[in-house]
Amino acid sequence: MVKRGLNRDRLVEIAHEYVAANGLDALTMRRLASAAEVTPGALYKHLKDRRDLQRAMSDAVYATIDLTDIDTDTPTVAQVITCCERMRAAMLTFRDGGRIVAGSYSPFAATLALSGTLMRLLQGVVQPPFHPGDIQSALRSYTTGFVIEEQAYLELERTGEWEPLVTALTAHFPRANRTGDTISIMTGERDRRFTAGLTAILTGTVRPDPTPQ
Amino acid sequence: MVKRGLNRDRLVEIAHEYVAANGLDALTMRRLASAAEVTPGALYKHLKDRRDLQRAMSDAVYATIDLTDIDTDTPTVAQVITCCERMRAAMLTFRDGGRIVAGSYSPFAATLALSGTLMRLLQGVVQPPFHPGDIQSALRSYTTGFVIEEQAYLELERTGEWEPLVTALTAHFPRANRTGDTISIMTGERDRRFTAGLTAILTGTVRPDPTPQ
DNA sequence: ACCTGAACACCGTTCAAGT
DNA sequence: ACCTGAACACCGTTCAAGT
Fold first, then answer.
1. CA-to-CA dists, residue B112 to A59, A94, B36, B42, angstroms
2. Does B15 share its domain with B117?
3. Is residue A86 situated within a structural domain?
4. Is residue B135 part of a domain?
């Protein structure tokens, strides 16, 4: 009788390791079981079903976001941007992190902490006629959408499907030149473009931070 | 020997009908085959595999977007908003439309038409220091992310999981009151909130349309 | 309380054979 | 060219039985 030490959190950890190595589509309950060196049936003592697994994986992604250094008592636009960048970073550290979060049908469970601090910051900087709730929603939707797109690109790049796809598309749509803005969206400078989007949302909707002289 | 009339497009149509009735997670190749009144093996004459099916379904979503009345020669902010609202509407008309698009790993195939007109419009209205490509990317990411979140809510509502989830969350997080901005994000006024997000992105980044006197 | 073994009703995909 | 029938190697989930 071995001390197994197997539990829900450890299972979620193993699941993320498996996805990191093989991608989300390759993850099955049976393969998770064998990765955990356990029989398939044993999983169901810790997880309700496959959906429950993905929800738990989604929560684990958000749990890596550290917000302890965010000071909600002195709200700044810079801190708002930091929150969103950490949200993106959290999803990016997990392969298929965007799809895991988006497909979990659990848009709130662990996101509440992030949503809360974001709201408190925005309440201090958003200016009329805009509402903090709308801006918070927009920032979260944008971030999720952005990461899903960039991870889609990363997956295609990984499997070598990206190049053929682009050449096929440029053949069919001559106007979409590879270096132009339409296709090159993903190829480079993803960090810069992400922050540019954040700035676009915040410009005109928030009171700018006082520039330290 | 019956004239079957079965082809790729018809198969994609049947797939969307099946998803509309049963949800994306219930769609399998075998069930698609039986809905098409055909043997499972027959599918593979029209579809490469399951991934190919989802990519084709994603293309079908974008194909419903009508942009013929958009005049790219006289670009306006109003037309930019119309494009994004049509993109959202297209995804919303298909159950799980957001997940289908997001999970297809095909962010470009049929989106190129939309991306192109959006780019041409933005080139006429975006003002420095912002770049049309960045704003286009931001608008698309935001729209995709927004629809995924609202359809996640719609699915939970459909299955009756929404109410228990909210009551469980409010018990754990007393600060997230149901009528407050954190949780009520989805419950109502989704149209208004979507447009508010678009406006947030565009305010400060584009030259406003001349107001007709 | 946690795990195994075995079973059940499914999957996706391939391929010779038919028409 | 398109479809069937049958097969292969898998799935998710349940549950009596063991420890």
1. 34, 28, 30, 31
2. no
3. yes
4. yes
Mean pLDDT of chain A: 89
> How far, in Å, CA of B101 to CA of B148, rounded?
9
Write out the DSSP string of A46-88: T-SSHHHHHHHHHHHHHHT---TT--TTS--HHHHHHHHHHHH
Are A94 and A21 in the same domain? no
Predicted confidence (pLDDT) per residue in B80-134, tens digit: 999 999 999 999 999 999 999 988 877 565 677 888 899 999 999 999 999 999 9
A102/B99 touch (CB, cutoff 8 Å), yes or no: yes
A25 with A111, same domain: the answer is: no
Would you say residue A52 lies in a domain? no
pLDDT, tens digit, for every residue of B139-170? 999 999 999 999 998 998 898 888 877 777 67
Q: Are B83 and B143 contacting, i.e. CB atoms less than 8 angstroms apart?
A: no
DSSP assignment letter at B161: -
- Shortest Cα distance, chain B CAs vs residue A4, angstroms: 31
User: Tokens at residue A32, please?
Assistant: 């998770």
Check whether residue B88 and residue B181 sit in a common domain.
yes
CB contact residues (below 8 A), chain A span 163-202, against chain B: 165, 169, 173, 175-176, 181-186, 193, 196-197, 200-202
| Containing structural domain, residue B181 | 77-202
pLDDT in tens, A24-46: 999 999 999 999 999 999 999 99
Q: Do B110 and B14 fall within a single domain?
A: no
Q: pLDDT below 70 — which residues of chain A?
A: 1-4, 107-110, 169, 173-188, 213
Angle between the A50-63 and A77-93 helix axes, to the nearest 10 degrees? 140
Question: Which residues fall within 8 angstroms of residue B155, CB to CB, at 6 or more apart?
Answer: A105, B23, B96
**Which CA-bearing residue is nearest the C1' of D14?**
A41
For B157, phi and psi rounded to 5 degrees?
-60, -45
Q: Could you give the CA distance from residue A70 to residue A114 in angstroms, rounded to a whole number?
A: 11
Say if B1 falls within a structural domain.
Answer: no
CA–chain centroid gap for A50, Å, is 20
**What CATH number did the domain enclosing B179 receive?**
1.10.357.10
Residue A83's identity, in one-letter code, is C
